[in-house]
């Protein structure tokens, strides 16, 4: 039972840091926060994502490219230009590595206005730090696993961020319904996105990319938004007024 609790906790805490800090804050600046809170969420993201940590800058750049080039060959992770979810995420990994290592020329319009903490990001990207996180996960399972099949969950822990990305970008651009014609293949896959914290409202988000609540219809529920609303009321963050349409478009 402890293993399953730990797995669910890792799934949702890693997911929260991705959708709250990297996506809605770093990539879209849907809200602001004090620099001290920014550092807190930087560390929290590193701890929760562990071996699959992504730089908020790298995440923001890839995500802005994804909006601008949605479901074209220039999209870093469109399911419509790749054979399967694995090859899609491998392409994403290669684009991310090129951005992180400075091997690609990112368009100036995608740059800027994202959080950076060079020392922590460099630490998190060291291969042996990622391996150490993996060792922590393995040690926990050795200590508490009671059935052999529980060890089959370990690869998901190792690649948690990539698993989330595969579900969101493959499912959210292939399966579901559309509220808006965005001239791409984005879909809303679930009415209540219990699986990815609102990220599967891709069609809504591609239309209203600065809106903190990814649910648009009264019957669509984005479970991350109540957390954001609460943090705003507690003055941890300050929500910004959404813009009516996407800011980034393909040139």
Automatic annotation (TrEMBL):
Membrane-related topology note: Multi-pass membrane protein
Record keywords: Fatty acid biosynthesis, Fatty acid metabolism, Iron, Lipid biosynthesis, Lipid metabolism, Membrane, Oxidoreductase, Transmembrane, Transmembrane helix
Assigned GO CC terms: membrane
Compartment list: Membrane
GO BP annotations listed: fatty acid biosynthetic process
Keyword Transcription among record annotations: no
Predominant localisation class: membrane
Domain of life: Bacteria
The Fatty acid desaturase domain, residue ranges: 6-236
Keyword Lipid biosynthesis in record: yes
CDD domains named among the record's database cross-references: Delta9-FADS-like
Family membership: Belongs to the fatty acid desaturase type 2 family.
Source species of the chain: Hymenobacter busanensis
Name of the protein: Acyl-CoA desaturase
Any Pfam family hit: FA_desaturase
């Amino acid at each position: 039972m402890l293993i399953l609790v730990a797995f669910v906790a890792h799934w949702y805490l890693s997911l929260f840091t991705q959708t709250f800090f990297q996506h809605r804050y770093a990539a879209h600046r849907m809200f602001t926060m004090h620099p001290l809170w920014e550092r807190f969420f930087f560390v929290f993201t590193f701890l929760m994502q562990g071996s699959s940590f992504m730089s908020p800058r790298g995440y923001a750049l890839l995500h802005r490219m994804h909006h601008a080039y949605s479901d074209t060959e220039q999209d870093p992770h469109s399911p419509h230009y790749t054979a399967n979810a694995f090859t899609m995420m491998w392409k994403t990994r290669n684009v991310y590595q090129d951005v992180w290592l400075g091997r690609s020329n990112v368009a100036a319009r995608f740059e800027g206005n994202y959080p950076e903490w060079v020392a922590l990001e460099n630490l998190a990207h060291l291969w042996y730090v990622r391996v150490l996180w993996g060792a922590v996960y393995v040690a926990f399972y050795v200590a508490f696993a009671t059935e052999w099949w529980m060890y089959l969950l370990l690869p998901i822990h190792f690649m948690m961020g990539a698993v989330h990305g595969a579900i969101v970008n493959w499912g959210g651009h292939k399966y579901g319904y559309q509220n808006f014609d965005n001239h791409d293949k984005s879909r809303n896959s679930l009415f209540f996105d219990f699986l990815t914290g609102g990220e599967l409202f891709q069609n809504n988000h591609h239309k209203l990319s600065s809106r903190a609540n990814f649910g648009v219809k009264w019957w669509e529920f984005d479970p991350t938004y109540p957390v954001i609303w609460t943090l705003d009321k507690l003055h941890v963050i300050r929500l910004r007024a959404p813009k009516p349409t996407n800011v980034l478009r393909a040139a």
